[in-house]
Input
Amino acid sequence: MSAQTATPLSVLVTTLLFALFLSVTAHVAARNVLGDVDPRRALYVGPLPAAVSVVGGGFAVPAAVTVTVAFALDAVMFRWSYEQPPRVVAVMTVIHAAVTILVGVVLGGIALLLSTRPA
Output
């Protein structure tokens, strides 16, 4: 079995796609808490946690550290983007985590099912 190497382009594309995914789930979380909001604000939330996750995974940083830093940056970006009090930001961050996990599990299940289909 050959070892896979990550090219700078693959790391960039992975980070951008993960940032987009986190931005979409951030918008879902913000709509859940705040009602009708501008979807462009969610684009500010996704990139930093995505970058922390990709860099943390690339440098084998312990998951506890990576997740803690990503959650903290998620909350900071929600606060900065939506200008809400800390309690609302905390609720948005928890809902964002839940939505991200749920959507990720569903998409992962779909990918698994598609990968096992007969040829």
About this structure: The mean pLDDT is 92. Residues 113 and 119 are 13 Å apart (CA to CA). The two ends are 23 Å apart (CA to CA).
